[in-house]
Amino acid sequence: MTDHGFDTKAIHAGITSFQPDSMSVPIYQSVAYPYLDAQEAAAIFTGEKPGFTYGRWDNPTVQVFENRMAALENTEGAIAAASGMSAIFLLTHHLLGAGDAVVSSNRVYGGTFGLFDVGLPRMGAKVNWVTNPESIEAWAAAITPRTKFLFVETPSNPALFVADIPALAALAKSRRLPLVVDNTITTPALQQPTRLGADVVVHSTTKYICGNGSSLGGIVCGPKSIVEGIRQNGIRYLGPAMSPMNAWLSLIGLETLSLRMGKHCRNAQAVAEYLEQHPRVTKVNYPGLASNPYHKLVAAQMKGCSSLLSFELDGNYEQATRFIDALKVLTHATHLGTCRSIVTHPASTTHSAMGEAQMRKAGISPSMVRFSIGIEDERDLLADLEQAFDRIGKQPAKQPAKKPARKAVSRT
After folding, report:
1. Distance from first CA to last CA of the chain, Å, rounded?
2. Where in the sequence numbering do the catalytic residues fall?
């Protein structure tokens, strides 16, 4: 369906022939698929005949979701996984061997940071962090003969760094390396990295793709050589397959993706503009603001800035958490990308395992508050913020900053 528009593909792409036909994709809740005879089984396993082998490797419902995501991200193929982190792990496992390295921005989700910083050394590989990811020269300097791919999350969680994807793609191609883009925050409705030169796209489909917080999932979209390489190897013996039910829930989410992303963007813009004018806020991280350093770059490569934003409260750790506790409409949870608005304190939850020094390098302070703005009525969201600010006081209290405790794990 390459000649169809985005919304049409989000509803129709990837559909195969199901009997009887159905208005929604059937859920094949089965781990295995009986064969007609031994000859057919052998032909399916060798690839001579189309078919399905085992639930850990393939599934008809999951296949529709994979095909639809590949169509939306303009890639040759896609492979779904049990979570966003398992998708990144499968890709990393496939591309890296002992002694190899990945070059990555340090502005990444806490789980990705942990995988690269702690997990890779356990596999005999390593990460070369780019702590100034706005600089293409810094990326180039981090590349070594053992580098196998470049990785960037853009926009990043939670400080909203935005990468110059065409510039990074040009660098990657000049070194004959694939560029991997984590496109979770914008989704293909707002940004399509392969059209900007990227080679591989990863998602936590748990977030905006599903859209309602009901299912875990992840996906790798890219060239068939990479996708099928993962399918024939890593996912078979590691096993983080997406469940048919979660694929079905994600397919339902895709049907309304662009509509939801439009409302997310409008609401987040209104909240960001409100925060930028508030006397208790010292900084707002949202590229939709004209004052944001990435604002011009966004216009060139994104259709909107999504729902994620963060801000620095003029105060300390304790006051930031008091503000969060005062909110009534926004839900306090370690999640993002759902229809309901969510608030999180990154320094004590999602990014706490990075430690204070690494959080500072990534632009995460004890007084940072992160929002994932949902699709509620704008006036109700702004009123909730106003009453929360009123409850903590108009002016910052002079109290010593409380340092966040380091935790062993990081979450969404």
Report:
1. 33
2. 56, 109, 182, 207
Dist. CA 80–CA 109, nearest whole Å = 19
Q: How far is the C-alpha of 198 from the C-alpha of 182, rounded, in Å? A: 10
The domain limits of the chain are 6-255, 258-392
The β-bridge relationship of strands 218-222 and 77-81 is antiparallel
Q: Which of 3.80.10.10, 3.60.150.10, 3.40.30.10, 3.40.640.10 is the CATH number of 6-255?
A: 3.40.640.10
Helices 84-95 and 224-232: crossing angle in degrees, nearest 10, is 100
**Can you say how many angstroms the Cα of residue 109 is from the centroid of all Cα atoms in its chain?**
8
User: What's the rounded Cα separation, in Å, for the pair 309 and 4?
Assistant: 32
Collapsing DSSP to helix, strand or coil, 126 comes out as strand
- In angstroms, the CA 222 to CA 75 distance is 5
Q: Give per-10-residue mean pLDDT for the chain (412 aa).
A: 89 84 91 94 91 92 97 98 98 98 95 96 97 97 98 95 98 98 98 98 98 97 97 94 98 98 98 97 97 96 97 92 96 95 88 77 84 98 97 64 42 48
Give the tokens for residue 80.
């779904």
Residue whose token pair is 């010593």: 400
Buried residues in 338-350 as b, exposed as e (16+ CB within 10 A): bbbbbbbbbbbbb
Closest CA relative to residue 288, chosen from 314, 313, 262:
262
- Does CATH number 3.30.210.10 belong to domain 258-392? no
From CA 39, how far away is CA 57, in angstroms rounded? 20
Q: Residue by residue, what is the 3-state secondary structure of 11-70?
A: HHCCCCCCCCCCCCCCCCCCCECCCCCHHHHHHHHHCCCCCCCECCCCCHHHHHHHHHHH
Report pTM: 0.92
Whole-number Å distance between alpha carbons of 163 and 152: 7
Q: CA-CA distance, 17 to 10, in Å (whole number)? A: 17
| Residues facing 280 on adjacent strands | none
Q: Confirm if 317 and 342 have CB atoms less than 8 A apart.
A: no
